[in-house]
Amino acid sequence: MKKTAILFAMIFLLLPIMAFPEVKLGLLPRLPEQEMVEMFTPLAKHLEKEIGRKVTIVVPKDFDAFTKMAIGGEFDLGYANPYIYVLIKKDVPSSRTPRPCSRT
Fold this sequence. Notes:
The protein is of the alpha/beta class and 104 residues long. 53% of the residues lie in helices and 13% in strands. The protein is built from 4 helices and 3 strands, in the order αβαβαβα. It has helices at residues 2-18, 33-51, 63-71, 82-91, and strands at residues 22-27, 54-58, 77-79. The chain has a 3-stranded parallel β-sheet with strand order 2-1-3, with helices on one face. β1, α2 and β2 form a beta-alpha-beta unit. α3 (63-71) packs parallel to α4.
């Protein structure tokens, strides 16, 4: 039962993403760009395989640029720390509020 609920939740969350030919994965630049790309390429490749869409990794130049891009809706998915998430959440309309990943 739990696996079925998780599957339906993932499908529900990924449906809007599947409408686009490309998915942009925004990463908070906590390390040099090349290191971030190397770290997240396996995830991007896995997502590509699962959703059948190209996943492009976007690493802005700094935290401020990431925050502005996230608020502007320039990412389909994002990876940020809790502080940046709160900053973004305050400025994003509720219909576009990013959802944090839950750990079960």
